[in-house]
């Protein structure tokens, strides 16, 4: 290997590593944004109705 090839390879590897770190950081930010949006949607839902054990157990078959 030539000295210039070694230097070029080292530069390419450093650039690739930096690009990978940037990509991982952007992915983390995107996931955090989506998690915050999901929490907002879940908090916007109305509270569930109280459970009544008598509702939904019988079927009116004479109607």
Description:
The chain is mostly helical and 63 residues long. Helix content is 67%, strand content 0%. It is built from one helix and no strands.
Could you list some keywords that capture this structure?
63 residues, rod-shaped
Instruction: Please indicate the percent range of residues in DSSP E strands (runs of 2 or more).
Output: under 5%
SSE pattern, N- to C-terminal: H
Poorly predicted spans: none
Rough shape? rod-shaped
Mean pLDDT: 85
Helix content: 55-70%
From the alpha-carbon coordinates, what is the Rg to the nearest angstrom?
29 Å
Report the structural category: mainly alpha
Count of alpha/pi helices: 1
- Head-to-tail CA distance between termini: 89 Å
Number of strands: 0
Biggest sheet features: none
């Amino acid at each position: 290997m030539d000295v210039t090839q070694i230097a070029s390879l080292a530069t390419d590897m450093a650039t690739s590593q930096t690009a990978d770190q940037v990509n991982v950081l952007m992915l983390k930010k995107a996931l955090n944004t989506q998690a915050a949006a999901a929490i907002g949607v879940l908090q916007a839902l109305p509270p569930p109705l109280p459970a009544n054990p008598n509702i939904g157990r019988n079927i009116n078959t004479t109607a």
